Every structure is written in structure tokens, then in C-alpha cells.
Amino acid sequence: MIYKNIRELYLELDIDGIIKNITSNCMEILGYERQLIIGKSINEFAVEEIDLNTFKDKGNSEELYVLLRKSDGQTIHMDTKYECIYNKEESQQVNISLIDVTKYVLEEEKLKILLQICEKSNDMIYSIDLKPELRYNYLNPAMEKNLGYTTQEHIDDPLLVFEMTYPDYYDIQSKKKSGEIDFNKPVVMKYRNKLTGKYIWFEDYVNPIYNEAGELVRLYGINRNIQERKELEEN
Q1: Going by C-beta distance under 8 Å and a sequence separation of 6 or more, which residues neighbour residue 183?
Q2: 115 assigned to some structural domain
Q3: What residues make up the domain containing 131?
Q4: Can you say how many angstroms the Cα of residue 48 is from the centroid of all Cα atoms in its chain?
């Protein structure tokens, strides 16, 4: 049966992977007319060859992930579910439902790239919830590289940052948490290195997040080590 105005692409295959039927939205999804698809192997449209033995394993309502090539050469990622219809012991027909998840896959790939950048950065990158409770959402490994404190130490004790802060800057740290500072300007701070006990200059570029009620609920930002710059300024 052929359906119109649906997001999913439905195929009917025989056990050799030959397309016997396909929904009429194949033009919108793949860019091919139905007559150019029916009678051909599904592998003619697959970027990576599909193991047709998968359909002969008598699976029922199984999931499969495939890459298909559109008529313009673009690759689309399809989340697939198939069901085998049997006659006695042999599979006679395979019904497949496919949905295009390309945009989600690409977004996930972008997030992976951003995470790799953050993980390798020398700057300390963080995201911390202020409400309903104080807790870190993310803290990159640069914290340990710069100051000797592990990510886990900060997750276990979100107030550890106050212990690290040079006493003259406690007030600034508190105002940052309460939102009483100008977030358009970098916040200059001094933090103690756990291993050496020395205080190091940092410049914190803070971004506030507010809820619908206008309450400050999250901070995320980048802390950059400016110790060398400060030493040059003092000299």
C-alpha cells in the first residue's frame, strides 16, 4: 500500500533485497521517481552495502541503521525498522520503515567536535547550575592542568572555587554567583594552585543564563590564564 504526506519511507523487499513497492514520498526523500526504484536492489541506493542475510535471519520488528544516497549524490542517515513476513520456513517479504535522521546525526557530530575542542583547550571551560541547586554541568580537564584540582573534586564540592580564590576576591566571586557584576566585561580573578600553593591570575569570560522569571540560573564561561601578561604589566 502506498501512503502520501508521511515522513517515513516505506519499502517492500523480497528476500534478495529487490524493491517490490515503495511509498510515493520517495521523490521528496530520495529524489527518485518510483519507477526508477521499483525492481532494483536496495543496495543500489545504499552508501554502504546492506547485508541481505540480515533479512533472512527471521528477525521480527528489528532495527537497522543505513546510509542511503539521494539522486543528487547527498548521503542521508536513515533510522530503519524492518519486519519479515514468513511463509512456512522461508521469508517471503520484508517490510521496511525508514525515517530521515540526518539533521540529528549532523548535530550530534557538531557536538562531538565542540566537545573535542573544549576537552583539548588550555582555557578552563565550565557550565554550572545555580538553581535549583549548585552543581557543575561541565568542566574541562584544563582545570587540573592549570590549578591541580580534578574535575571530580569540583563536581563533589561546587563551592571549592571559593577555597581556591584569593581572599581579596571573595566578594567578586560571590557577586558573580548572585549576578551582581557586569557580565559584559571579563572578570579578573586570582586562584590558588593546589600543587604549588601559588596564586595565578585568570580572566573569566562569564555568560549568564536566566529563566523566564528573570532569575539567574546558570553560568557558563571560559577562564583564561593571564599570569604571564600580569607579570609583564608589573615589570
Answers
A1: 206, 207, 208
A2: no
A3: 121-234
A4: 24
